[in-house]
Design goal:
11 helices, mainly alpha, Arc Repressor Mutant, subunit A, 221 residues
Length: 221
């Protein structure tokens, strides 16, 4: 507790954190439709009024939970992109540098612990099943500006490629990333034990290589 924070505000912040953790758990397992503010409050050992006080609505609560997960990864993506720019000495980045800056930070996040890997995989899997309107709002809030920043880098790298092809191939690269994360738990069974699903560093490096070659093949037609 900071010096400026009163005991009451400290308790309020602890309640808010518990509510967000419960929101993450319920959303990951049941999705937006299966989540209720009442159940979140119950699991957080808080009252419903507290949930409404902190977030106002179910959608705002879910978006705030996703913000706590997504924003640190997005900040790291921008750091990786800036590091690549510094190394490029003013020249356009390679496709691999751009896609590495996009993918590596989420790999770093899932490598932190088995719990983080499982939770993020569940959250990513929800992007395939949630109502389209909610996913669109989530995309605009957390990824709209970021996608345009990466598109600008791709335009500089591939100035002669049509916008349509750049958008298509970035979309397919992102979809490959999301699919790999959502389905990684099936890798051991799928490969009959040949592949180690817990080796996240290997998975991320393979994914970066895969989407880089796929992207470049897609615009070289």
């Amino acid at each position: 507790m900071t010096r400026q924070q009163s005991p009451a505000s400290h308790r309020s912040e602890k309640t808010r954190i518990r509510l967000l953790k419960s929101t993450e758990s319920i959303f990951a397992s049941l999705g937006f439709g299966g989540l209720t503010m009442r159940e979140v409050a119950h699991r957080s050992q808080a009252n419903l009024a507290s949930a409404h006080y902190h977030f106002g609505s179910k959608e705002a609560m879910v978006l705030e939970m996703l913000k706590t997960r997504v924003q640190p990864i997005n900040r790291r993506r921008m750091e990786c992109l800036e590091e690549a720019r510094c190394l490029s000495d003013g020249n356009p980045l390679t496709t691999r540098q751009i896609l590495r800056a996009l993918i590596l930070p989420i790999g770093e996040e899932i490598a932190k612990s088995a719990h983080t890997r499982q939770t993020l995989a569940q959250l990513v899997a929800r992007s395939f099943t949630e109502p389209a309107r909610f996913i669109e709002r989530m995309h605009r809030k957390f990824f709209g500006e970021l996608c345009e920043i990466f598109m600008d880098e791709l335009r500089k790298t591939h100035p002669m490629v049509k916008e349509e092809d750049l958008y298509w191939n970035l979309h397919l690269a992102i979809s490959s990333m999301l699919g790999a994360l959502a389905q990684h738990r099936r890798l051991r069974e799928f490969s009959k034990g040949t592949c180690d699903e817990d080796d996240t560093c290997d998975m991320i490096e393979r994914l970066i290589t895969f989407v880089t070659h796929g992207f470049e093949a897609g615009i070289a037609k």
